[in-house]
Amino acid sequence: MGAPRSFTVAPDGQRVLFLRSSSGTDRSNALWLFDTAEVTEHLLADPAQLDDADVVSEAELARRERVRERASGITAYAVDDSARRVAFTLSGELFVSEPETGLVRRLPAQYPAADPRPDGSGVRVAYTSRGELRVIGFDGSGDRALAEPEHERVQWGSAEFVAAEEMNRARGYWWSPDGSTILAARVDESEVARWNLADPADPARAPRTMAYPAAGEANADVTLELLRVDDARFGERLPVRWDRGSHPYLVEVHWSAHGRPLLAVQSRDQRSQLVLAVDPETGDTTELHRDTDPHWIEIKTGWPAWTPDGRLVRIAALDGAYRLLVDGTDWTGAELQVRAVLDVGPHDILVAASERDPTQSHVYRVTESGARRLSEEAGVHGARRGGPVTVLSSSGLRQLHTTVRVLREDTPIGEIASLAEPSTITPRVELLRLGARELCSALLLPHGHRPEHGRLPVLLDPYGGPQAQRVLRKQQGYLTPQWFAEQGFAVLVTDGRGTGGRGPEWDRAIAGDFAGAPLHDQVDALHACAAERTDLDLDRVGIRGWSFGGYLAALAVLRRPDVFHAAVAGAPVCDFRLYDTHYTERYLGDPNRNPETYAANSLLEMAPELRRDLMLVHGTVDDNVVFAHSLRLSEALTAAGRPHTLLPLPGVTHMPTSESKSENLLLLQLDFLRRALGLPARSPEGSGSTD
């Protein structure tokens, strides 16, 4: 809250658009402009002046849940090619803005409107509503349905669940460069199982039904069609053809003026991924490249794409590194682990990558001659670019908030201000490399603690799951661990195998086994740290985590009660047969073919082994890791006669967003851990602040 985000740089470099709320206590984002010539900020669209209802449709709630959006107000926007026309929604209403004139107006679009996107020239705006893909003039004229669903389980122009949740593809349609055509996804969920999410705290309310593609079960049927938008051929449809039987997953679409539309499509087992070029006149596709892997193809942001001179840009796992390839030529070599393509320019490509230290991610300008680092300070950096102007976002351990600098030809010309609140907690972070595998870890101790003060109980606080690093060189991720440290713990955060940043072999070390390497690495890091620090008390060790971290926490007390004495498992995946296809099958395979793998990784199978204190915490309307996970584990524990604590969070989805609930949830976890580890109860006035 209060921090700038979601930057767009105009191609001429004259304007930077971004979102920001008014303060560190305001959730509602407004649309802002940074003028690079005057080096000034201007408020373009304030939700408080445009809409006071703050009504969020179910479709918008689902979108926000997929991208873990906790803000309100303007949470997303899209621009035309020149960034002179902007579209966004508020409370399901469609708004447009012209940054140069200050105009903001509501369009008479069908309600509720979602995901509006202007065409390249800003003449029309496409949007989705009630399963339809619609088009309206930027002036509000001619609102028409371009594609309508045949029945209620078909959606046009939207991303299906696994695309948004697991592939980082949040959109489902793409404008042609000339604005005459839209390439749109048709999502048919007829064969997908319907799950009911009910809130037991409100029995009068009907359950919300959703299509959930569980591992081994049917996915949504995703097809693509070219839809003509120009007046002479409005609504004409042309199917895009590829072998969807062998490659059913639509991973990404790229359509620019530099070449034919590009598709990245994957096989169901994710061991094969194709880059296809689409003929926009016939719908036929041509295979440009094929990647295969004995385990899976890792999805990286920003590819495939064309360079302005028509060369194919992609990221590939080759000889121990994720490399940037341009028409098959390696531009980054073995020294960089490329994380994402940020921008493709006429003379270079902007990427995010790590070198030897996976806790850092920097921005590089890459050419065929090599890579030059744009970001200087140690930390985690990102960038957006337009013409000669680059917006560089930098986070580090020296300050809490991200610094956003605006550069022209690499020379700083100003900063975009953060209005976020200062923290009452300053993380005391010591970054370590522990054990034979040099596991990246962060140790946080109470301020003022010294070894002679005595031994501290230890709290492990991992995520530990695939491609999700916790140990990064930036303060933001350490506020809650430091809060627990101030309550008298030595908090250890470790990224084990599979968590990313260290190359393809590291990522694939967890293939087929969530219960092995991730837990083994947590134990190794704990023992290696204790061998160096005599003030860590291994007779009092707790572990807490959320989502995969919740699975790992519960797994720890079930599998290694000799090491772990208490666990708090938040929204844990207890049975991977209840989790989605794309994520679960990537790592564990098809449960219909490999049931023994799923049984070996299931917490339900381990329930009779519980000998330690375990708290399960779960939102009752979680649509990602459904509440059934914790309920089934609780049932299995009860059947085995194993005492445990189950804390349901009524009306809460996968991530608690209420300030009061979040704070009290931390206090409840603290009390549980204190009791389980035999520590003195906290005093109400001594609990510290969770700000």
TrEMBL record:
Residues in Peptidase S9 prolyl oligopeptidase catalytic domain copies: 480-678
Occurrences of domain Dipeptidylpeptidase IV N-terminal (ranges):
87-369
Q: Which domain of life is it from?
A: Bacteria
| Pfam families referenced in this protein's UniProt entry, alphabetically | DPPIV_N, Peptidase_S9
Q: Which InterPro entries match?
A: AB_hydrolase_fold, Peptidase_S9_cat, Peptidase_S9B_N, Serine_Prot_S9B/DPPIV
- Name this protein carries in UniProt: Peptidase S9
Q: To which species is this protein native?
A: Actinopolyspora erythraea
Upper classification of the source organism reads: Bacteria, Bacillati, Actinomycetota, Actinomycetes, Actinopolysporales
